């Protein structure tokens, strides 16, 4: 019996040494934490699997003006409601504080890092993921045309083993999908939009794989239409 306990203790120490001290828990505790780990965005993303949760990465991928940044703002606001701070890494300097505030983000508990190199991005994100004070780390790789050395999700591979043992979640915003990195991804596509006085005033966005509808209007709050199944039920 003593040898068995020693072997188990050694195995636990080995796993925690390799993957982090947060990686192991008893079954009942793990079940309870599953709900607690979710970051609520106030959108249909909360009903989907994998959704956004601490200790896990997630990518929102799509072209410009599809609503993915607005959804990330909602995630940041949700993380703050849970009592945590948010790190927003912005290599292309495209972060809009007014849009973030409209989505409910508390700018006093949001740290924006204008990292210019891949190493700086990785350093800032890893520091947030290892800190107990952060609930969410967002990496916005920026538009494809922006002069940035971090333009692909694949560049963030070193962060995956760190986030798995972290109390925070990792959310990546990108124009293009990962080519080699295995990361849960929702593709966001523009379905329709309208113009007024020559400017885009509204659009609808669809997370294609899971049929998540999100409506956003320029200069106004976002309105979530729900999942495709729920929308079909309402329209008959």
Give a brief description.
This protein has 236 residues and is an alpha/beta fold. The chain has helices spanning 2-19, 27-36, 68-81, 97-102, 118-129, 160-163, 228-235, and strands at 57-61, 85-89, 110-113, 134-140, 169-174, 185-196, 199-207, 212-217, 223-227.
Structural summary, described in words:
The protein has 236 residues and is an alpha/beta fold. 31% of the residues lie in helices and 25% in strands. It has helices at residues 2-19, 27-36, 68-81, 97-102, 118-129, 160-163, 228-235; strands at residues 57-61, 85-89, 110-113, 134-140, 169-174, 185-196, 199-207, 212-217, 223-227. It has a nine-stranded mixed β-sheet with strand order 3-2-4-5-1-6-7-8-9, sandwiched between helices. The radius of gyration is 19 Å and the shape is globular. The N and C termini lie far apart (63 Å).
Name the shape in a single word. globular
Q: What oligomerization state is this entry in?
A: single chain
Tally of helical runs: 7
Helix content: 25-40%
Average of the residue pLDDT scores: 78
What strand line-up does the widest sheet have? Answer: 3-2-4-5-1-6-7-8-9
Strand composition percent: 25-35%
Largest sheet: 9 strands, mixed
Order of SSEs: HHEHEHEHEHEEEEEH
Low-pLDDT residue spans: 25-33
* CA gyration radius, whole angstroms: 19 Å
Rounded to the nearest angstrom, the distance between the terminal CA atoms is: 63 Å
- Strand tally is 9
SSE-based structural type: alpha/beta
